[in-house]
Amino acid sequence: MIRVLLVDDQPLLRSGFRALLDMEDDIEVVGEAADGVAAVTLARRHRPDIALLDIQMPVMDGIEATRRIVADPTLTGVHVVILTNYGLDEYVFDALRAGAAGFLVKDVVPEDFLHAVRVAARGDALLAPSITRRLIDRYVAARPRADAGVGLAGLTGRERETVVLVARGLSIAEIAARLVISPLTAKTHINRAMTKLHARDRAQLVIIAYESGLVAPGGG
């Protein structure tokens, strides 16, 4: 059963999302909230698999709530998915930097919304690397992080190669074919790189690859 926390300051939207989720046999809504403070409290109380958070909310926004959930060592199994009206913008980039596993535009079709919840629950990044790159091309050059390269020295040569290919948008199967290794080995390299770089998912790994200079914004 996938346990979901639903957080949005618009009751009508919450009701619509909940109605969709409640129809599914494998999904359970364990809590609802209208602001970021309540979101963090309920996340600690219920330990959901997925926290669906609106970005712009009163009291505490979704970005700060994401940051607090990600920083809490008791909530390592919670995957944050950001809900936004605006699509690709600086708020989404900030949320990904804060540790969100991805984002959904609120007018997503029901089938895609439910698929996204299940994808995030598996621990996969709910964001195509190509979309992450578009965000990074727009924002990372103007807002570099001095500590972004910390940990790169600890990567093996093959791990660095896989991180670069993830950042360029290749799937695990494509990475395996490019490096002439099995998909399982490719996934192992990616997971080890994520551990060493303290990345929660592949979306975070892509951001680190660009912010560290391992891959250049705008590059192929």
TrEMBL record:
<dbReference type="InterPro" id="IPR058245">
    <property type="entry name" value="NreC/VraR/RcsB-like_REC"/>
</dbReference>
<dbReference type="Pfam" id="PF00196">
    <property type="entry name" value="GerE"/>
</dbReference>
<keyword id="KW-0597">Phosphoprotein</keyword>
<keyword id="KW-0805">Transcription regulation</keyword>
<protein>
    <submittedName>
        <fullName>Response regulator transcription factor</fullName>
    </submittedName>
</protein>
<feature type="modified residue" description="4-aspartylphosphate">
    <location>
        <position position="54"/>
    </location>
</feature>
<feature type="domain" description="HTH luxR-type">
    <location>
        <begin position="148"/>
        <end position="213"/>
    </location>
</feature>
<dbReference type="InterPro" id="IPR000792">
    <property type="entry name" value="Tscrpt_reg_LuxR_C"/>
</dbReference>
<keyword id="KW-0804">Transcription</keyword>
<feature type="domain" description="Response regulatory">
    <location>
        <begin position="3"/>
        <end position="121"/>
    </location>
</feature>
<dbReference type="InterPro" id="IPR016032">
    <property type="entry name" value="Sig_transdc_resp-reg_C-effctor"/>
</dbReference>
<dbReference type="InterPro" id="IPR039420">
    <property type="entry name" value="WalR-like"/>
</dbReference>
<dbReference type="Pfam" id="PF00072">
    <property type="entry name" value="Response_reg"/>
</dbReference>
<dbReference type="InterPro" id="IPR011006">
    <property type="entry name" value="CheY-like_superfamily"/>
</dbReference>
<dbReference type="InterPro" id="IPR001789">
    <property type="entry name" value="Sig_transdc_resp-reg_receiver"/>
</dbReference>
<keyword id="KW-0238">DNA-binding</keyword>
